[in-house]
Amino acid sequence: MTPTLKRLSTGITNLDRVLGGGLLYGGAYIVQGPPGAGKTVLANQIASHHAREGGKVVYLTLLSEGHDRMMAHLSSMAFFNPEDVAGKLTYISGYPVLEQEGLAGLARLVRQEAARHKAELLILDGLFVIEETADSQHAFRRVVHELQSAAHLAQHTLLLLTNARRDPGSPEYTMVDGWIELADVRDQGRAVRELEVHKFRGGATIRGRHRFRISDTGIEVYPRLEAVAGHQPSPAPQSALVSSGIPKLDAMLRGGVAAASTSLLVGPSGTGKTMAGLQFAGASTAAAPGLFLGFYESPARLVHKARGIGMDVPALEAAGALHLHWRSPSEMLVDEVADWLLCELRRTGSRRLVIDGIAGFQQNLIWNERSGRFLTALGNELRALGVTALYTSAMTGEGQSPSPTSQGVAELSPLVDNLFTMRLIERNETLHKVFAIIKVPDREFDSRLTTYTIGPGGLALAG
């Protein structure tokens, strides 16, 4: 039986998840990133957590910034309270020893302080300073090897923080047990923070880049949805049907949409997509709750719209039948929202979901090629939860062409079970609203174009 390696938790739940359970005792890790990437915040957050858990930490810095100044910056972070870590987290400046005694003196200081304080976690902030001080690359690598060997023998965890960006094949990366990179990614003026584990001995990690943010609570990591969700096989299609909330549409669908299916409703502005979403959500009950997530309509506007069609959203919320949420699409982290959404669906036991404006996700993916993978993972996870979902998407132009072009519909269509369109057709100098069912798998449906109106009862299809 393979022995289980002892882990040191970072105190950041999703970072531990990415690392496969946390850092390893006796492991040495390079944490690399440009200035401002969050290395010092990350290291102090890990250190503070370990100290609060009763462990001992030595934080040795080679930077010009004084400890008082660093702690003043950290004081705004919820994770950092000097009283909580007193006697457990020790800050030491190694720069004077490095200046006076060189690399050998610094290596000796690291070993001595780790032993003196009985530290399980040792952080050396400023590995690039050692490289700049070393007479040669050989001397620099020798110090890295000594620090790594000492960590292994003493079974303490060692974090080496550096600004230096070197080739992945650089020898120091092969010597250590892990390499974690923090980076800023920029696209069209926007910057997002990302974390990637390039190397990790002794455990499986979630590979690839994962977004993170720095807030007053510290660092929060959000693994890519497609890397952590939607991997289980989709359950067998259910025979049960779920009402769309629009009686005539249910009749055209021969009873409703399949339970645990995903539907996409596309149409230009003003055709009533949000109204249709409200009617779908309004069919929720306390026994089978629903969740409405909007990106572009505020909850107040949604409540007002719903009231106009006789739907009492506050009463549904009070009964636990409906949960109304809004998220600003302005520079949101899609993996954070997706993680929250799945947790909220589980917490509330929701069986219906409306995502009003799926472009809120699409436009924040940074890399458009993620769209298919992201939405596939989301759809698979929704099916596994038994959630019947309706996405809405805005159509470009006026939607008058026979096959309207819409935002990402060509990419979205294969990812959903059912596809509906809402169009505007000019007839006798009047614009008429027309509804069509484009796709419903494995069963018959009414494919005729059907006009509809929007009135006090919501969408009313003709016939």
Describe this structure in words.
- The structure is a single chain.
- With 463 residues, the protein is of the alpha/beta class.
- 34% of the residues lie in helices and 27% in strands.
- The protein contains 17 helices and 22 strands.
- The protein has helices at residues 13-18, 39-52, 67-74, 82-85, 95-116, 127-133, 137-154, 171-175, 225-228, 247-252, 273-282, 299-308, 313-318, 334-348, 359-362, 370-384, 409-412, and strands at residues 7-8, 23-24, 28-32, 57-61, 89-93, 121-125, 157-162, 178-187, 190-200, 209-215, 218-222, 241-242, 257-258, 262-267, 290-294, 322-326, 352-356, 388-394, 418-427, 430-439, 450-455, 458-461.
- The strands form four sheets. It has a nine-stranded mixed β-sheet, sandwiched between helices. Strands 16-15-17-18-14-19-20-21-22 form a nine-stranded mixed β-sheet. A two-stranded antiparallel ribbon has the order 1-2.
- Helix 5 runs parallel beside helix 7.
- The protein is elongated, with a radius of gyration of 28 Å.
- The N and C termini lie far apart (69 Å).
- Residues 397-407 have low confidence and may be disordered.
Quick take:
The chain has 463 residues and is an alpha/beta fold.
Helix and strand topology:
Layout (H helix, E strand, L loop, with lengths): L6 E2 L4 H6 L4 E2 L3 E5 L6 H14 L4 E5 L5 H8 L7 H4 L3 E5 L1 H22 L4 E5 L1 H7 L3 H18 L2 E6 L8 H5 L2 E10 L2 E11 L8 E7 L2 E5 L2 H4 L12 E2 L4 H6 L4 E2 L3 E6 L5 H10 L7 E5 L4 H10 L4 H6 L3 E5 L7 H15 L3 E5 L2 H4 L7 H15 L3 E7 L14 H4 L5 E10 L2 E10 L10 E6 L2 E4 L2
Parallel strand pairs: 3-7, 3-8, 4-5, 4-6, 6-7, 14-18, 14-19, 15-16, 15-17, 17-18
Antiparallel strand pairs: 1-2, 8-9, 9-10, 10-11, 12-13, 19-20, 20-21, 21-22
Helix pairs in contact: 5-7
